[in-house]
Design a protein that fits this description.
Layout lengths: L1 H22 L5 H21 L5 H24 L5 H20 L1
Helix pairs in contact: 1-2, 1-3, 3-4
Length: 104
């Protein structure tokens, strides 16, 4: 169950990271509120997952989910470049997340 909670926490991290772009410096109310709610939810769920998961593993997986998801959505939604090196780097992060899950 802790892994599922951590996954949702990571997804919320993606949400708030992308949401920051849409807040326009927290000058837009609805995106700002949604971003702040996602931030709080992400950290709260990470805290719940840490009741049973090791901190090093959980934090690395949480940030990895956020990094990969944010990079992917940056490419898909925001037109950021999808260079071979960038995609390979994302792949390395995914490899690390899978590795930590297998040993954690």
């Amino acid at each position: 169950m802790a892994w599922a909670i951590l996954l949702v926490a990571g997804l919320l991290e993606i949400g708030w990271a992308i949401g920051l772009k849409y807040t326009e410096g927290f000058s837009r109310l609805v995106p700002s509120v949604l971003t702040l709610v996602a931030m709080a939810g992400s950290v709260l769920l990470l805290g719940l997952a840490l009741k049973t998961l090791p901190i090093g593993t959980a934090y690395a997986v949480w940030t990895g989910i956020g990094a990969v998801g944010t990079a992917a959505l940056g490419i898909i939604l925001l037109g950021e470049p999808a260079t071979a090196m960038r995609l390979a780097s994302i792949g390395l992060i995914v490899s690390g997340i899978v590795g930590l899950k297998l040993v954690g």
